């Protein structure tokens, strides 16, 4: 229940539906009880057991309400039967019963009608909040999480919470009220018999609670397993070429089969335990009713302290408790399952984002002087990636970072864009520490072209205009021309409105990369970060992309992380990195004359 208290904040915008649901549930519980009590006058008329009263009874206060109602009923039956006959009186009683059952079912429907808006509203808002949080969380968070597990939390876990919402409202309003109204009426009809029956109720409750004890733990395990096999699906779809190329279909199929087998066993255990609740509560209820029949029959036949119609209605009321009792036991299991799901959802929603705007963060919309990286240290886990690293990047200059894999080049790009935060030292733009800038404005100053062309299953226009959503077709075409991409886009069937498929798989590697460059060109930022933008391309594509990059970098400050050294020979400054430190720096000519690490790297690539 602790987790549900936190989830309930998502119900606040829909509280009017919750109030209407509660009102309808109260009326449902009231008419459910009255519909059973209405059997008494019908049976009384049917078997002619009404006491002959010809004068209207006098109300003697709340303490004599029961006897007043009985006397008034007998008076009505006597006078109506004498004046209109017993058949008419029976018809009136049947009409009352039908009306009460109609009202009961009407308010039942209305209660479900209003709760639908609450449940679906909470589902929508929870999913929106989850997606927003997933987008906001730093990249470091997802390096430790399975994508499938995150997908499972947004989809099935949130759905489980939605189902549990209905259960919890039944648990705290509808079914308890039905039971309370029924018990009050039973006490009114026969306090002695009701006390006798309720000696056995705590025993039933204890047995039902024992059954559901392990349900939350098993539900949690099942949700984790579901996240695992969704991860396998996600990895399989992303790596089909490798799986087929290495004949690994059976290996991945066996992994998936093992996971679904574990999920199958957990699901069977959960559902069997959950399904046991309803028959168990009903069987225990029937035992209570059997005892009630024996003791109540004794009161009717031997003691004469209870009349037949009242006893039959009493049995109906006792059985009327079974349905809500079953619903409560079933709902309590739903809450336990939902609690496990809520815990997993809240783990993400309550995750603190270490990379967030400072309370006094400033908005910076222009780049005037320089970028300074001063004495920064950074490590992902144990090993330091950058050690006391410093670099000055003046406005309008192109600075290239080169070095072997693992030397820390891409880490610089991640720190400049604040995908990660430095652990020591600082990075500043025009003298302002980037941690004191609004993230939105910081990233608004930068364009990013990565080694992997990250495109989305949408049109070329939608992919290129990500950084400028209101861009016109003419602006997009101009950006495509700068990126050497319009030549192939113009011959596509629908031009810039052509859908490029999942991850842009309808295009070649060079085409995808040129679209990524066009996206950065259209954004038109003053600072450009190119993270090995040509390393995954063939020679012909590289030349086209390189030309596009040169067009884009004109009059811009650029940080180029390069694998192929031939692409950065015109850079204003080349920084050679080795194990997180600067080994040497200078222009291409200066570094070649120095005959150091850079020249060795160039010679190695020339030899290749």
TrEMBL record:
Q: What is this protein called?
A: ABC transporter ATP-binding protein
Tell me which residues make up the ABC transmembrane type-1 domain.
Answer: 72-337
Q: Which organism is it from?
A: Sinomicrobium pectinilyticum
The subcellular localization recorded is: Cell membrane
Keyword terms: ATP-binding, Membrane, Nucleotide-binding, Transmembrane, Transmembrane helix, Transport
One Gene Ontology term of the molecular function aspect? ABC-type oligopeptide transporter activity
The coiled-coil segments of this chain are none
Transmembrane stretches in the record are 20-47, 92-118, 171-189, 195-212, 283-302
UniProt topology in membrane: Multi-pass membrane protein
* A Pfam entry, by short name: ABC_tran
């Amino acid at each position: 229940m602790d987790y549900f208290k936190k989830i309930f904040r998502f119900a606040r915008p829909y509280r009017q539906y919750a109030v209407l649901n509660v009102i309808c549930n109260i009326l449902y519980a009231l008419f459910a009880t009255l519909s059973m009590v209405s059997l008494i006058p019908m049976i009384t008329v049917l078997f002619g057991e009404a006491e002959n009263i010809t004068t209207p009874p006098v109300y003697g206060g709340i303490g004599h309400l029961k006897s007043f109602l009985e006397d008034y009923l007998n008076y009505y039956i006597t006078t109506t039967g004498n004046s209109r006959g017993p058949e008419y009186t029976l018809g009136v009683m049947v009409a009352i019963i039908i009306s009460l059952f109609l009202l009961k079912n009407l308010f039942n429907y209305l209660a479900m009608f209003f709760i639908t808006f609450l449940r679906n509203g909470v589902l929508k808002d929870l999913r929106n909040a989850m997606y927003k949080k997933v987008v906001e969380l730093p990249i470091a968070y997802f390096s430790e999480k399975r994508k499938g597990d995150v997908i499972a939390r947004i989809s099935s876990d949130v759905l489980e919470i939605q189902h549990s919402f209905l259960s919890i409202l039944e648990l705290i309003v509808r079914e308890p009220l039905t039971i309370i109204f029924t018990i009050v009426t039973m006490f009114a009809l026969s306090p002695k018999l009701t006390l006798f029956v309720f000696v056995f109720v705590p025993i039933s409750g204890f047995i039902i609670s024992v059954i559901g004890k392990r349900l939350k733990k098993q539900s949690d395990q099942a949700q984790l397993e579901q996240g695992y096999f969704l991860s396998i699906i996600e990895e399989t779809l992303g790596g089909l070429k490798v799986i087929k190329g290495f004949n690994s279909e059976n290996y991945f199929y066996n992994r998936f089969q093992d996971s679904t087998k574990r999920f199958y066993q957990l699901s069977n255990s959960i559902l069997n335990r959950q399904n046991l609740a309803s028959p168990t509560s009903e069987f225990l209820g029937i035992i209570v009713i059997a005892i009630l029949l024996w003791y109540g029959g004794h009161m009717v036949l031997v003691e004469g302290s209870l009349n037949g119609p009242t006893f039959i209605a009493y049995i109906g009321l006792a059985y009327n408790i079974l349905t809500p009792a079953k619903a409560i036991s079933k709902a309590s299991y739903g809450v336990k399952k939902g609690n496990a799901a809520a815990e997993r959802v809240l783990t993400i929603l309550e995750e603190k984002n270490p990379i967030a705007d400072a309370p006094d963060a400033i908005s910076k919309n222009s780049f005037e002087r320089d970028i300074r990286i001063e004495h920064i240290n950074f490590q992902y886990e144990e090993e330091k990636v950058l050690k006391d690293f410093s670099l000055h990047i003046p406005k309008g200059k192109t600075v290239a970072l080169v070095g072997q894999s693992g030397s820390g080049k891409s880490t610089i790009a991640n720190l400049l864009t604040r995908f990660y935060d430095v652990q020591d030292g600082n990075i500043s733009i025009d003298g302002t520490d980037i941690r004191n800038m609004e993230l939105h404005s910081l990233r608004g100053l930068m364009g990013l072209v990565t080694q992997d062309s990250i495109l989305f299953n949408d049109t070329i226009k939608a992919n290129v205009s990500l950084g400028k959503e209101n861009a016109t077709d003419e602006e997009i075409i101009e950006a495509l021309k700068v990126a050497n991409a319009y030549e192939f886009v113009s011959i596509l069937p629908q031009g810039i409105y052509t859908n490029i498929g999942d991850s842009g798989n309808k295009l070649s590697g060079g085409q995808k990369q040129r679209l990524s460059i066009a996206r950065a060109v259209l954004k038109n930022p003053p600072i450009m970060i190119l993270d090995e933008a040509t390393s995954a391309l063939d020679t012909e594509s590289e030349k086209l992309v390189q030309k596009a990059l040169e067009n884009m970098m004109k009059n811009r400050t650029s940080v180029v992380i390069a694998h192929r050294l031939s692409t950065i020979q015109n850079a204003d400054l080349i920084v050679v990195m080795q194990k997180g430190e600067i080994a040497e720096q200078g222009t291409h000519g200066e570094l070649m004359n120095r005959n150091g690490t850079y020249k060795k790297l160039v010679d190695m690539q020339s030899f290749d």
